[in-house]
Amino acid sequence: MEMIQEPLLDIRLSGTGLSKVFNRRSIFRDITFQLSAGQTLLITGSNGAGKSTLLKVIAGILTPSSGTVSIMDADIPQTVYRAIGFVSPYLNLYDEFSPRENLFFAMSARSRQVAPDAVDRILDRVGLGRFKDVPSRVFSSGMKQRLKYAFSLIHEPPILLLDEPTSNLDEEGKGFVRDLMARQVAKGILIVATNEQTDVSRYDHSINLDREG
Amino acid sequence: MSANPSAWYHLPIIPGLEDKARILFFHVPTAWLSTVGFIASMVYGIRYLRKRDPEDDIKSASAAGVGFLFCILATVTGAIWAKFSWGTYWNWDPRQTSIFVLLLIYGAYFALRSAIDVEEKRATLSAAYAIIAAVVMPFFMFVMPRILASLHPQPVLNVQGKTEMNATMLVLLISSFAGFTGLASWMWNLEVRIQRIVMNSLSGLKGETRV
Amino acid sequence: MIGTFLNPVLAVLRKDLQSELRTRYAMSALIMFIVSTISIIVFAIGGGTSRSDVLAGMLWVVIFFSSMSGLSRTFVSEEERGTAMTLQLLVPPSVVLFGKLLFNVLLVIGMNILAVALYSFLMTGFTVTSPGLFSLTLILGSGGLAASSTIIAAIIAKANTKGPLFPVLALPILLPLLVVVINMTRLSMEGGDISESVGEFQFLIAYIIVIITASNLLFEYIWRD
User: Fold this and answer.
1) A66 touches chain B (CB under 8 A)
2) Considering only CA atoms, which of A145, A143, A186, A176 is closest in space to residue A163?
């Protein structure tokens, strides 16, 4: 299959001296990294080491106890809401809404115009084509995970954060995730946090919270 | 007893109030300090939101604690005063209603604190509530006198600044203020130090950041 | 640009409205609450009084407690269903605040229309001599009610015991508003003139502005974990 070379976005993401204290317990301390387009970061650690917490800090939804996260994009002025896509076990979409409704809400909240067929296309891509108008409350956990991917990709974010990317997914789903990770790296930044055995060498940078926390 | 006492330890008489006046020296300072506690709580709350220093939250909560205690004292002494001066313990006049509302605010503040386990969240939300309550207070102060009739005695220090109070009484009142203020700040200081020790000892057990 | 702020706010409002129409949690609670409370009052004192101060007071008691039963849903549901993160990823905090504030304003307006209608119908002594004064009081009172309830709802949504905590925190904040609107409702029953109440209207408008300003400054600390 011919790979379409998409141009690298001029985007940089850096974290400096990040730490998080929770109920006076230190989750992690002094985390620093710098990423530019085409680079990947792997975050590993045992359960409870703080991988999800660190991702939330990077995504901007959790304030660090100290340190800063900054996003620099020379091409287009993008706020953090458009720059980041985040898939997480803690993410819950609106289960009284169908995938279509969830995605339309997401785009109008971001003040982005979206062609109706763009929504349909991405739902097809994640494998929810037959369920576009079904309230997501009846979805299996695997289907909900696919919906989270649709939600995180619809605005084509230059930075993608994945917390346990393949959880709840079957083999086909895992293949889809590997594919989208490759596409993301081709144009932007990818950060993955996972428990599963992963080949660390395939990532440009890695942080192990068991050692550095 | 005479209107102008012969010895320094004799209490001068306010016509109509006589012996009942004694509680004034407890009531007025405690009422004042309950307001001060509230304002202090708000100020430290603002500081916490800016710097996230747990020390500021300790100070805010301790100020509220001392303020709450003094508010209860002020309410009780005020009710006793009301009983002996006007016949009933409670009249819903502006001053009594104000102290009651302050009591409600303190109660709400501590109800909120007890409903949150996560310390950073507890500190943030209490600070937010203290600030909102403080911001709304002026509205309350403004509205009360216009709506409700007042049975409260005319202020003894009237608008021209001349004191109608006998000099001895004034000295007594001021020293009472000083005494209660000293007591309140000592209690506050003590509570802050206790909470600091509690926080540090628990940190020590878990091996984390010290305040 | 106002447009870039307004559109996300309307998106959040639309989302809340759509969700509410589909699940009907707040609406059903509110309607049943208003009906029950007014019924109790009718059984208790019914036509037994035409005292304007009692009737005015009772009306706002109904409105206050009805608000307490329905106005926290907009924030509590996000926390309970874990959808707060979704909103945090999509829009800045102030958009969330104003979207939900508008939602609560609509809810309060609907609730008050129902409450007043039912109250007038069932309470025989309740007659409004100055409808202009009454309407203006109701509108401003609703605005203040919605504003205060929204920020308090945001606070309690992050606590453990949300339900009972809501009225406990809201009452001291709403008291100045309630005192004034009850008084003005009483005046509107007794035939007062709007021109006599200009000071009170300024008071209510100032209250609303102050609460909204303070809410906007504090909300991001409350909303972000």
Assistant:
1) no
2) A145
